[in-house]
Write a structure and sequence with these properties.
The chain is mainly α. It is 78% helix and 0% strand. It contains 3 helices and no strands. Helix 1 packs antiparallel against helix 2, helix 1 runs parallel beside helix 3 and helix 2 runs antiparallel to helix 3. The N and C termini lie far apart (57 Å).
Length: 123
Amino acid sequence: MEITTQPAEQQQMNAWKEEVNDVRTEVKMMRERLEQIVLSTAPREIMSKVEHFENRFLRQREVADEMYHDIKQCSKKLSDQPQVVHDDRPVDDYQTIQHRMEIFQKLFIELKDDFNHFITCDV
């Protein structure tokens, strides 16, 4: 039985893809919680914050989709697979994807913290 090992960069990108999928799942759960608030009789001030978070969740989902796509393309670029040229978006190198992922992680943590504060203090 032959065991193939992936370079550390490929393993890291696979971990990032899983993390991006986890973020998608968490955002979905937070949106569901937000929907519960909308169905309640919350004051108008709360509803404006709900709309604010709805917009942030929508954007977070868009960014997650872009990150997943770009990580996948970068992973293909580093592998020995034949390349498909995408004119719509350039394929970033590993260091650029790593930097973008760090920003993605930081912004998601901020969003999650802000939402948790909203849920515990405002609602």
